[in-house]
Specification:
The chain is an alpha+beta fold and about 120 residues long. The chain has two helices and five strands; from the N terminus they run E-E-H-E-E-H-E. A five-stranded mixed sheet has the order 3-4-2-1-5. The relative contact order is 0.18. The structure holds zinc ion.
Length: about 120
């Protein structure tokens, strides 16, 4: 007698994405917790310009918590949307140049509340 569901996905037990064993036989450690994905609208970013050595102006984004926001990823997003350089400084993001308006607009677009 042929098995009605032979060869269809229904025929196979669910398998683990990582070791490809049936879930019942899987010994993988629990998945690593996802990166922080706090609701941006519940966070307020402070954006200000600062003068660094040799009178160089930078734009500093502070007030965002690394436990709520994936700051390195946010920095990457800001750098690519502004087309400028930037670094992390503790829990602040330091963007090259005087870009308060553009940084504020970019953060607002991502859903953050922004305070000057
Ligand atoms: Zn597994």
């Amino acid at each position: 007698m042929t098995r009605l569901f032979s060869g269809t996905p229904w025929d196979r037990p669910p398998t683990c994405d990582r070791c490809a064993k049936p879930v019942a036989d899987c010994n993988c450690p629990p998945p690593t917790p996802p990166k922080p994905s706090g609701d941006p609208s519940k966070q307020t970013a402070r954006v200000r310009r600062e003068k660094r050595q040799k009178g160089k102006l930078v734009t500093v984004v502070s007030g965002l918590s690394g436990s709520q926001t994936d700051l390195p990823q946010l920095l990457t997003q800001l750098k690519s949307s502004l087309g400028t350089g930037g670094t992390m400084d503790d829990e602040s993001l330091v963007i090259q140049g005087d870009q308060v308006e553009r940084v504020s607009a970019a953060l607002a677009k991502l859903g953050y509340k922004v305070k000057g």
